[in-house]
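Record type: ASSEMBLY
Status: queued
Input:
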Amino acid sequence: MNNPTMHRIPPCSARAVELETGDELVIVDPEGQQVSDLVAFSRDDLAEYLSSGRSIDYAAKLWLSTGDLLYSNRSRPMFEIVDDTCGRHDFTLTPCSKDTFSIIYGETENRPGCEGNLVSALEPYGITTDRIPIAFNVFMHVAFDPDTGAVAVKPPLSKPGDRIRLRALMPLVAAMTACSAGQSNNFRYKPIDFAVERAG
Amino acid sequence: MNNPTMHRIPPCSARAVELETGDELVIVDPEGQQVSDLVAFSRDDLAEYLSSGRSIDYAAKLWLSTGDLLYSNRSRPMFEIVDDTCGRHDFTLTPCSKDTFSIIYGETENRPGCEGNLVSALEPYGITTDRIPIAFNVFMHVAFDPDTGAVAVKPPLSKPGDRIRLRALMPLVAAMTACSAGQSNNFRYKPIDFAVERAG
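Status: finished
Output:
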C-alpha cells in the first residue's frame, strides 16, 4: 500500500470516490462523535447497491464490525470490514433529508441533509434521490429496547481519530457524508476525513 | 365497508393488489406461525416505494403496530396500521431469495423465495428484482440482543386467525407473500389469506 492522502469532507457535505477491487477506503472521525453515511453502487451495473437488509440477514447481527461482509442487493459481497477502532455503526436508518428535519425536528430551512448531499456527490453517476437506500451509517449509535423495539439515536461512541477500513470486493462508486443530523452527532456538526489506499 | 372476499395465497407464492386511497388491506394468518412479506409502490410513480428506514426513523421504533404509519422513501405516509391482533412484525430484513437459501441454508434447489415470488406478482408493473426493497415482514418475529446486536429469527407469535389491517393513504400497488423461508415460519410452509375492503 502507498501512503494515502487524507481528504476532508467539510461539515454537512458529501464526497464520492471510485474504488477498484482490493482498494481500501478508510473513514476517520477526526474530532470524535461524528457520523458518516456511506452508500455504494457497483460500477459494472449501478442498479446493484449496498443492502442493509441482505448484510444484516447474512451476518445475523445488526452491528457489523471487523471481519464482517457488506452485501449488495444481489447478495454479492461489496466490502469487507478489515479494521474498526470504534465498533459501533448503524445499518437500519435512511440518510437524513429535508423531510427528516421537517418531520423529526420541525425545521423549515430545507437543508438537503445526507440524502441531498449524497445525491449531489453522485450526480455524475446519475444516481437520483429515489435510489439512495438505507446507508451504512458509520459511527452512528442507534440503540434498541429489546422489549419494546424503541429506537434511540445516541451520541456516537467514536473518539477523535477512530477509523473504519473497508476493502472493496468489486469495482465500486462509494459516497459518504459528514452527517447533517443533530441527533446523530450530538448537535455538533463536524467534518469527516477519508483516504483511499490503492491495491495496485 | 362491504363484506370483502377472502383470497388465499398458496404456500410459497405471492399476489399483487391495487389499492385506492382509503381502501383497507387485511392480511390474515389462517393457520398461525406464517409470515407474509409486504411491499408497496405508489401507482402515481412506481419509483416511490415503502421504506423501512424512513418508517422506523419516524416511528422511533423497530416494531410497528396499530396507529403507526408506514412511510415511502419520499417520506409520505403510504399506509396506516388500523388494527393488529398479532403485534409483532419485522421491518429490517430483505425478502428471502434463492441466494438467501444458498448462503444461510445451503440449499441448491434455486427456489425463488419471497423475492422471486414478489417479482412474479409485480411483473405487470415492470418491478424488477433490483427494485424489491426490505419488506414489511408481517408476522415475522425477529429478536435482537441489545448488547451484541445479534439477530434471531424466531417462530412467529401469530396464532390462527391473527390479522393486520392496513389503510392505504395513496393509490398503491401492493404485493404480499406466503413466505418460503423455513426459519421464518418454523419450517412449516403455510398459506396466507387476504382481503381488500374498498372505501367506496
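Annotation: The radius of gyration of chain A is 16 Å.
Annotation: Chain A has a mean pLDDT of 95.
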